[in-house]
Amino acid sequence: MKISRALISVSDKNGIASFARALEGRGVDIISTGGTAELLRKEKIPVREISSFTAFPEVLEGRVKTLHPRVHGGLLYKRGNPKHEAEARECGFEPIDLVVVNLYPFEETIRKPDVALTEAIENIDIGGPSMIRSAAKNYESVTVVVDPADYDTVLENMRENNGETTLKLRERLAIKAFIKTSEYDRTISNFLEKEQATDASFSLSLPLAARLRYGENPHQKAALYGDFDKHFEKLHGKELSFNNILDISAATNLIGEFDEPTVAILKHTNPCGVGSDADLRKAWDKAFATDKQAPFGGIIICNRPIDEPLAKVISEIFSEVIIAPDFDVEARSTLQKKKNLRLIRLLTPTIEARPTRDVRSVYGGVLVQDANNADGVLQNVVTKRRPTKTELNAMLFGWRVVKHVKSNAIVFSSADRTLGIGAGQMSRIDASRIAIWKAEEAGLSLKGSAVASDAFFPFPDALIAAANAGATCAIQPGGSIRDESVIAAANEHNMAMIFTGVRHFRH
């Protein structure tokens, strides 16, 4: 069936004038609304206002304009069905063969800081999704377009088919339309649920970004959903694996803790070493010195463009992925000599890239929580001795890192580097012992270091082990029933200790 009439109502007006002009050139009768109609008239494209088509004015400040039987009747009646055809003639329904709609920018609206609920509600599109659904339901006869990227495809299809579109194209566009409306509704419901603090159900719909070769292990199927490629660009190397993507996300979350020039090395989402210095080569040396064995096959991330001196030194070890905001020409040339090394450019600031929700599978459903984006540190000194400025900086450095280490987690640090990391142990004393052992293996002294613990010390033993290793200060959440005995142990060893009041469990 040849497209003879189109209804165009778009929020995103990119490309719509040229698309409408091409339709008008094919003799298509164009109906439009509000700002879209005004734009088309400015472009000298003949257009009928929706109120002229429906013989009913736009009312309620534009809330009601396309919600009319002549619109939905013209979309929904079955072409070729004698009963439908007769009723359409009796009701005066003119067929609408093409619907071009994209929706009020609800997502863009709620991204605004401190957006008012009333403003968000006014940007909930009603008529648009209704038209999209009507057109998509009747895709056997009606073409629906919700994405400007499909304008050229539709025009080409019409050229090849004497003004018609193929059923195959209409089916594909209808599926895309239903996905769009479901995502739109889900965005609204998730926003309102958060805004109103209700106990409604949780739902999530994300577009397929990539099919992956396999998951964590070769026998597991896997895929990536969402807009990962909006935040990261692969410049070189093999396709990213499931584990690469997990590590890239963990690395980006970690490096987001640091404003100063910093290099971090991770393995299996755990930090192996972190170093800060205005000279990136020195920052690397500090990070790498923490553990020279674990980084083999790991992930390296830097929060500054990587230059040639840094590229040369990190190219000496085998890495899976290197991430940075950019790479100097010489640095990129050096690193691209390793054909399997993935080079990833971080496209957005880390504060924008980090997730706002954490979703995990469990038996019978999913657990959903806010992402651990707590940034502030309550500096509640609980010991007789207050920390020196150097000790305080060391504690704060370790606290930023320990947040990203699997629990139970212990980090020894100075003001600009990690010195020993103990991760993922069943008891905190074991995490402390491992961190001390790793520092000894690396030939690093813990004398004068700070010790950071992701959760409270349940007993004095781990703190005492840290003190005996040379730590002079500690930072931890506090909150144990044995806090007083832990504080007493710190005082006995002349340690300064801070309670943050914030726990950083990472299961």
Could you list some keywords that capture this structure?
single chain, 507 residues, alpha/beta, Rossmann fold, Cytidine Deaminase, domain 2, six-stranded mixed beta sheet, 20 helices, 21 strands
Plain-language structure description:
- There is one protein chain.
- By secondary structure, the protein is of the alpha/beta class.
- The chain folds into 3 domains: 5-196, 3-Layer(aba) Sandwich (Rossmann fold); 236-353, Cytidine Deaminase, domain 2, CATH 3.40.140.20; 380-499, AICAR transformylase, duplication domain (Cytidine Deaminase, domain 2), CATH 3.40.140.
- The protein is built from 20 helices and 21 strands.
- It has a 6-stranded mixed β-sheet.
- Strand 12, helix 15 (329-335) and strand 13 form a beta-alpha-beta unit.
- Helix 14 packs parallel to helix 15.
- The chain starts with a strand and ends in an 8-residue tail after the last strand.
- The mean pLDDT is 88.
